[in-house]
Amino acid sequence: MADPKAFRHLYVWSGIWQATGYNSIIYIASLASTDPELHEAAEIDGANRFQRVLHIDLPTIIPTASILLIMNAGRVMTVGFEKVYLMQNNMNVSTSQVISTYVYEVGIASTIQNFSYATSIDLFNSVINFLLIVSVNQLSKRFSSNSIF
Predict the structure, then answer these.
(1) Does domain 4-144 correspond to CATH entry 2.160.20.10?
(2) pTM to 2 decimal places
(3) What digits encode the pLDDT tens for the residues 76-96?
């Protein structure tokens, strides 16, 4: 954690590890909803394992993947205050400073608390998140006909 260049790698890989369990449960639940008769019919028709995955399993999980993409797009700007704040120290603060930790420092942790400035930064962050969610939702609706709203 003393090397500022290592912070990004540690943060990204810990985030991947953190989200893998939840996302895999969602994908496995989506695959479990596949009708077994589809696989049996494909086997009888002579489809190998790769063809069954390509033509049965992937189309089954595409709606789930698009919904997870929309839900995760809203978390792009929020990044996760807790993990960043806990991994942050004086040696890597130049690399690890994100919007949420900056809002915390400006609004609460500094000696001169500037609540209005911190609120405006967080409001801007929320507006950008909303625009990201709406745009990813529109793209998902256009390409896979699945959307949240």
Answers:
(1) no
(2) 0.79
(3) 887 878 999 999 999 999 899
